[in-house]
Amino acid sequence: MKNIFFSIISLATLAVLTVSCNQSSNKNDNEQANDSTAIAKTQDLSSAIQNDTVKAFASKDTPSQEVEKHTAKEQAQNFIITPIVKDYLALKNALVADNDKAASSAGKQLISTLSKVDMKTIPANKHKQYMDIAEDAKENAEHIGDNAGKIDHQREHFAILSKDVSDLITLFGTTEKLYQDFCPMFNDGKGTIWISEAKAIKNPYYGSKMLTCGSLKKEL
């Protein structure tokens, strides 16, 4: 009888221990699972923060890039056509005075000035327009520069050059007061324009022959 009693006690104790071990094992498993989940979430959060930081740095310009952009912007705002207009007016005044040699020198000087223009100083959205006008102006200035002694030929190209300079003034504006004049007689009576720094009419297409022929078309 005692043996049966002790056997029952032993089995009961073993059962309690088994249940307790199983509960402890399950608890440990749950804790490990919870720890793994927490670690995974922490890693995900760390990765997200790291990615955001990388994106932030990637999208931000370096100090040197900022300086380059600022310099380029300033340069693009610094372009003025004053040197070009100055050479054009010298050429115009030479033709007013019927001086083909002075006109030739002024034409060559204008070519030099146009060739020295720094394209970085011209706004990007005006590059193509400027290049088209400048190339045409150079071609006409070359004809004037290469044809001393042929003032009629010089005046023909001056008429086209005057249109080029007028287009540059329209595109970039001017820092000085200028006038657009009109000669009704030149180009077989079709008429043409010229740009002047003075309000008084002094015709570069006919010089002393018809010095005051023409009219003020508009102020620029």
User: Which radius of gyration do the C-alpha atoms yield?
Assistant: 43 Å
Number of strands: 3
In the sheet with the most strands, the strands line up as 2-1-3
Structural class: mainly alpha
**Uncertain residue segments:** 1-35, 67-76
Number of helices: 6
Mean pLDDT: 79
Q: What multimeric state do the chains show?
A: single chain
Q: Tell me, what's the shape?
A: globular
Sheet having the most strands: 3 strands, antiparallel
- Could you give the order of the helices and strands? HHHHHHEEE
Q: Report the sheet-strand fraction.
A: 5-15%
Question: What's the helical proportion of residues?
Answer: 55-70%
Distance between the termini: 129 Å
Summarize, please.
By secondary structure, this protein is mainly α.
Secondary structure layout:
Elements: H1 2-59, H2 63-76, H3 82-96, H4 100-115, H5 127-145, H6 151-172, E1 179-183, E2 192-196, E3 215-219
Antiparallel strand pairs: 1-2, 1-3
If you had to describe this structure to a student in words, what would you say it looks like?
This protein is mainly α. It has six helices and three strands, in the order ααααααβββ. It has helices at residues 2-59, 63-76, 82-96, 100-115, 127-145, 151-172, and strands at 179-183, 192-196, 215-219. Strands 2-1-3 form a three-stranded antiparallel beta sheet. Strand 1 (179-183) and strand 2 (192-196) form a beta hairpin. Helix 4 packs antiparallel against helix 5 (127-145) and helix 5 (127-145) packs antiparallel against helix 6. The longest helix is centred in the N-terminal third of the chain and has 58 residues, at 2-59. It is globular and about 65 Å long. Residues 1-35 and 67-76 have low confidence and may be disordered.
